[in-house]
Amino acid sequence: MKDLYEVLEIESTATEAEIKTQYRKLAKKYHPDLNPGDAEAEARFKEISAAYEVLGNAEKRKQYDTYGESMFQNGGTGAAGYGGFSEDIFSDIFDIFGGGFGGFSSGAAQSKRPMYGEDVRYNLTIDLEDVLNGTQREIEIERVEECSHCHGSGAKDKDSKKTCKTCSGRGSVRKERRTAFGVFVQTEVCPDCQGAGEIITEECPHCHGNGTEKKKKKILVKVPKGVREDSVISIRGEGSVGKNGGPNGDLNVYVDIRDNNKFKRSGDDLYTSVSINYLQAVLGDQIEVDTLDGKVKLTIPEGTQSHTKFKIAGKGLYPLHKNYRCDLYVVVKVDVPKNLNDEQKESLIKHFKDMNFDYEPKKKNIFEKIKEKF
């Protein structure tokens, strides 16, 4: 089997838009109706259409990029696509000719195709302590579920549905369209049953024919250690009910971390500040510092300057899915004495002069001198 990217004559790094543009270009070039009697062109058209069936679908492309040709074995996802054509591909083929080339519609298939239910969003606010330790929270969400009375049928009872006469239960109707390239059959969603194949004669009084209802549900959410702001915790299948038997959507929990007055987060490190007095800064001391999980001792060396930063190893947060902790940084602020009386000031000046510390008291201005006179 040829490499699918080679079939479409495109790089494996091509974007979704580039793949679609290239496919349309090649499909138009090799389409059998534009190359009548050319078996080689027909074979090439089938080949590029089958390649686009895989590469034009994000999920199938992801599988192909991961597993390569093995994805086509044992009836894998791409097995049906690489050898036959889905109605999606015909949609693109006829779009190439601006809808005039038969105007084939895949709406009939799409209307009955199983579809994922809508995702549900929930905003969860936690504290920094929860980031350190991890937590579990029971939340209540509102989602769309199958109607508990009609079980999704939308009808009052089993006798309140009948086969659609317009489409004979197929959900689609076929119409012929004549074009410059010949007569083509156009398939459309049945206008009477909207593709369901059945018509409800009497609606379910609880859901008014929708087959669904909104319900509240409590769910336990596990928040891991080290979770980041705006992280999304996805819980598969806990969203709204799918359509036409499709799977439920997901519950997406968006994490918001409440501001902490004492600690600031930077990556997985924490920062805090403490104040020490002038004497502690000069002579040194051992002080207690708050952390997220208790107090620890911090040694302040002699001559510590204001805004000096100290590291306390292993007192930060856990990185996500790791078993070690990062660090806590403590910024020291030195409180300078205020409102000293004259005696205290003189004592302080003498102290610094004895230490050969240059200090010259500021000279009195004219107003201070006048004030002393009177």
Structural account:
This is Chaperone protein DnaJ. A zinc finger (CR-type) spans 134-216. Its cofactor is Zn(2+). One of its GO terms (biological process) is response to heat. Belongs to the DnaJ family. β4 and β5 (182-189) form a beta hairpin. The chain is of the alpha+beta class. Helices cover 25% and strands 27% of the residues. The protein has helices at 4-7, 16-30, 39-55, 58-67, 87-96, 107-112, 128-133, 278-283, 342-354, 366-373; strands spanning 120-126, 135-146, 161-163, 172-179, 182-189, 198-200, 212-223, 232-235, 251-257, 264-266, 269-277, 285-291, 294-300, 309-312, 328-335. Strands 10-11-15-14 form a 4-stranded mixed β-sheet. The chain has a 3-stranded mixed β-sheet with strand order 1-9-8.
- Written as H for each helix and E for each strand, in order along the chain, the element string is HHHHHHEHEEEEEEEEEEHEEEEHH
Q: Uncertain regions: pLDDT < 50 for 5+ in a row? A: 73-87, 96-109
Task: Please tell me the overall pLDDT.
Answer: 84
Structural class: alpha+beta
Sheet with most strands: strand arrangement: 10-11-15-14
Mind describing the biggest β-sheet?
4 strands, mixed
What share of the residues lie within helices?
A: 25-40%
Radius of gyration: 37 Å
Please give the alpha-carbon distance between the first and last residues: 108 Å
* Overall shape: elongated
How many H/I helices? Answer: 10
Q: What's the number of extended β-strand segments?
A: 15
Approximately what portion of the residues adopt beta-strand conformation?
25-35%
